[in-house]
Amino acid sequence: MRKPNRRILPTIIGVSVLTTLAANTAVLIARGHDGDPAPSPQEKQARYVAASGSTRLSPGAVAPLGKRLTPHVLVAAPSALPAATIAKIRAAKGVKGVEVVDAVQGMVAGKRVGLMGVDPSTFRNYTPKPTAQSDALWRNVASGDVAISFTMGSDGGVKLGSQVPVGGKQHQSNLRVGAYATMGIGDVDAVVSHATAQALGMPTGNAMLISVPKTTPAAFIKKLKKVLPKHAKAVAVNPQLDFPKAGSGNAPTSHGQVMTAAQVQTVIKAAYSRIGWPYVWGGESEAEGGYDCSGLMQYAFARAGIRLPRVAADQARVGWVIPYSKAVPGDMLIWANDPTAPGYISHIALYIGNGKMVVAPRTGLDVMIQNVYTRNLKGAVRVSPKLAARLAG
Fold first, then answer.
1. pTM of the model
2. Which domains does the chain have, with CATH numbers?
3. pLDDT for 203-243, tens place per residue?
4. What is the DSSP string of 73-125?
């Protein structure tokens, strides 16, 4: 579900700088399917924080949770953002908070992901509520652990409590995986403390999160361009998705706004051709040995000349969200499986009719035809090729 097509996180020193970032959010705590027993609160916590009592830090090493703020805009640059620029943005009209972080595209457990260095005491205020509330999680990060996304951990096979290499392509250090956690920032699958970030050689203070609750991110970003350094980029964080309501869900059926019958057939045939390929977290081609759920969608639709964004949350925005009862072959099905980020689309599949779908489920399973399960199902997406191309960038 990762490898977004838009990134603004520069890479760790020694790796070429990237200039765009996906603006979608979050990760899973517990993905379930129909028939799975509901995990107890203790089981959820065990999956969320690993070895939380083993840190040598005192309870006061990380400040208690303060007032939570929703991040609306992410800014990142190849090097440290000027103090004067940060001060000017803090004082700008409508800004309720600014959190300065270290941000790169780095290597974690053999995967290139968005990696942030943060102050656990203040950054926690900008994360989804369950993540923000976990004192143990932030103490783990402060003590030198890395917190990773659930999709990277569960789907990607990176175990809680394990030691994994973190850093650039040339130089990496082993860190313990201290937690699975939703951070609420697209393409950020790993978080460490500022001190750990500096030890890894990450740039200092080259990114920031901005909370502007009463201003549209697009309007604020337009104003930001006047004060940001030349190579700094800004994107919106986690745009909302309108889910279908009872009795709603009408979508266009022609006039070039949706796929043709030939395109639908091509997409389904392409998805069928991947059946039997392994699930690979971040996979989007044969070269990577397999596919994840959104990588499979990107591959299949590309065969019909339709460009999709890379991650499920962005793919859910490439058309009209309609109720599953109105789904037809060629629609994508979307799930919000993340209990820590209600409404965030974390899983996606291709509907082929008669209650069946082609899907890349998770690590250990191959791309397959599966019965559609309705637990956490948020509807279907009637794809608009034009909108898809625009969002794919």
1. 0.79
2. 41-236 (no CATH), 261-392 (3.90.1720.10)
3. 999 999 999 999 999 899 999 999 999 889 998 886 666 65
4. EEEE-SSPPPHHHHHHHHTSTT--EEEEEEEEEEEETTEEEEEEEE-HHHHGG
